[in-house]
Amino acid sequence: MIGSERYQLPLRLAALGFLTVVIQIAAVSQVTVFGVSVDLSPLVVASVGLLAGSLPGAVFGFAVGLFVDVALVQTLGVTSLLFIAIGYWAGRLRELRDPAHGLTPLAVGAAATAFATVGFALMQFMLGVRAPVSWLLLRQVVVTILIGSLLALPIYALVRRVVQGSLPDDPRRRRRRAYTTGGLSPLQRPSAGR
Amino acid sequence: MYDKQVRRRRAVLALLVVVSLILLTAYFGESAGSPLHSVQRGVVAVLSPVQEGASRALKPVRDLFGWFGDTARAKKERDQLKAQRDRLLHEVAGYQVAVQENEELRRVLALDDSNGLDAYDKRTVRVIGRPPNNLLLDRLQVDAGSSAGVRVGDPAIADGGLVGHVTFVAPDTSFVTLITDPSSSVSVKVLNALGDTGLLKPSVGDPLDLLVQLLPRHAHIAPEDVVVTGGFRSSRLESLYPPNIPIGRVTRADPEELASDQQVHVAPIADLRHLDFVQILVGGDGGAGAGSVARAQAGVAGGP
């Protein structure tokens, strides 16, 4: 791997994570739809896991979660723990099943939002927030998951656009590497010249 | 080669989980002045100008998305407010007479009313951040901190109604925990004939539906009765909030619910989901005592 290319993915992911959290806190969280605000961060973490694999997904989830906890003055470690799981599982899904269906990001986004919302609630209960479970609370959790699912596809497309070209097994990158290391381009292959 | 990759992946995953758990445990057990809290305060202080800039830059986007909901809500509110205005006009005349009488009687009795809102300086601050999950943590980040005289425990108001109180302060930013946060409880007084007192808490799952609890079982409370802060003071403790700050209006007062659960439902006066600016009540004699109690509580609880 060429030196400058080696740091492309971490740099792009760092910028993506930083912007996601800042935009989430400064704008998205202040807009409510049916009484709930949209949470972009689990969707972005799941998309990174799906595109980059389990290890980058888990590390990205940890970093974004920690940043969220610090920026919002929450108990450190709560969100990072949840986002590690989301990034890792999304990455494992890609590595084990390599799902090619176009709606996979939607299902993964819904699962990530559900896991983040329910997991956060459970963690808060365990940390001592005294709030009994009610139908209203469940309704809001369901609405949050539905809105997260709706946004999953556009967020996935956006994340793919950001990390495109810097992924280790990106098709474009494979082609470029082949040319630079002496491999033949499709146009130069003997079969192409016939 | 494959085994090495698997081992590496598992090791990194385990490391990340362990670090998260250590952070969680350490942070949860710490007091407000401990190292992790100090680091967090430092990061928040560094980030607050970035967030403020982003908040200002993204305001048009927020307004665009908020416009649709706001329009529908505004039409409904307009009709309600027209009816309310007509009723209030009748009431105002009667109240003006009562206020005059009250002032005269206070002069006669030489009562001290320095514990009201006039005892505070009002700092108007901009909202620059909000957590995504308002079901279980309902807070605002504002662009003023200890350098502007804001302290933990200071009350915050908006639209003429109570919003919450300050629970975390950095030099140039602070966090206000709203009255709709599950951890919030405010001693309140209902402005009915007897001035019944109770405890205001948010309803679970629907934070904008506030509940006044611990009311007398046979209290005579009607919809549209105004609820204000109680502002109690005892030998040991003092309310975080000064007395008589309006909080909301009673929306539902079911006699059966009152008899069984001792509670009525209240809608807040301040539009807590669409706040761009709030006012923090800084200083004041009442606030000093209240703030010290809140600071002590924050210290014991290990954070906001």
Describe the protein's architecture and organization.
The complex is a heterodimer of chains A (about 190) and B (about 300). In chain A, strands 1-2 form a two-stranded antiparallel sheet. Chain A has 9 helices and 2 strands, in the order ααββααααααα. Chain A has one domain: Arp2/3 complex 21 kDa subunit ARPC3, CATH 1.10.1760.20. With about 190 residues, chain A is mainly alpha-helical. In chain A, about 70% of the residues lie in helices and about 0% in strands. Chain B has about 300 residues and is α+β, with helices and mostly antiparallel strands. Chain B has 2 domains: about 55-110, no CATH class; about 120-304, Rod shape-determining protein MreC, domain 1 (Thrombin, subunit H, Beta Barrel), CATH 2.40.10. Chain B contains 5 helices and 12 strands. In chain B, strands 1-2-5-4-3-12 form a 6-stranded antiparallel barrel. The longest helix of chain B is centred in the N-terminal third of the chain and has 51 residues, at about 60-110. Mean pLDDT of chain B is about 80; it is low at about 285-304.
Specify the structural class of chain B.
alpha+beta
Distinct helical segment count of chain A: 9
CATH superfamily of the largest domain in chain B: Rod shape-determining protein MreC, domain 1
Q: What's the end-to-end separation of chain A, in Å?
A: 33 Å
SSE arrangement of chain A, N to C: HHEEHHHHHHH
Q: Tell me the total number of β-strands of chain B.
A: 12
Which second-level CATH architecture of chain A applies? Orthogonal Bundle
Low-confidence stretches of chain B: 286-304
Q: Strand sequence of the main sheet of chain A, in spatial order?
A: 1-2
* Fraction in beta strands of chain B: 15-25%
